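User: Please predict structures.

Assistant: First:
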Amino acid sequence: MSMLKEFKEFAMRGNVIDLAVGVVIGAAFGKIVTSLVDQIIMPLIGMVTGGIDFSDLKWVLKPADASNPAHKVAEVAVQYGAFINTLIQFVIIAFAIFIVVKAINKLSRRQPAAPAAPPADVVLLTEIRDLLKNKP
């Protein structure tokens, strides 16, 4: 029973809950970025580059062979276009996270704290010392 209690304490700590929320939001954000890249950015880049669809770019190592229905051979290809899409998605996500972290850091900068007042006994001893110095 002790292990269950320890696990509950671990799982209910603030950092673990924050991490779980971050993972869920990150997954949703990833879908948004994927849609942004696939449906908005890549068509624009394709238009600028003369109608090239990067997601279809590939280097065929072995073409598909469907001549024999009993022994169909799938195409073997390096899909570098899909890799380019993924790279663009990564850059967008990294930039967005950079902007968010930068904004959080800017908001969380603390003002320098005023120096703390010395304890009462130190003040009293300082006053006594000063009085003794001024005594003839």
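Second:
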Amino acid sequence: MSDNLPPQDLDLSFLYEIADGSDEFIVDSIGMFLTQTPELLDAITNAINAQDWATAASASHKLKPNLGFFGMPQSQAAIQEVEIMCKGGAPNPSEVKAKFAEVKSVVNTNLVALERIKQEKEANL
């Protein structure tokens, strides 16, 4: 893994701030992220494998704000790099795959952590 991405890039302080003590808001927000993010990761993976750069760029663009909202700034910056590479139209496929693999690994680790947090919060409802 690149030195640019920590093994876990997750800061939920913004989510907790806007939740204002509402575990239900946190559970619902994390639930949406847990639904949307794997779908977007799969779409990016499939597009990169098919060398469909427009779709890879579009799905990366959609994933970016989600990563920012959930306090993953390094992952957000890295997925922006993937988006920019794909927007160029004819990137080096191995370079795009390598950069995306880094992002996907960190995000998948965070999905596990978010699922645990969601379960803990649901137990309090």
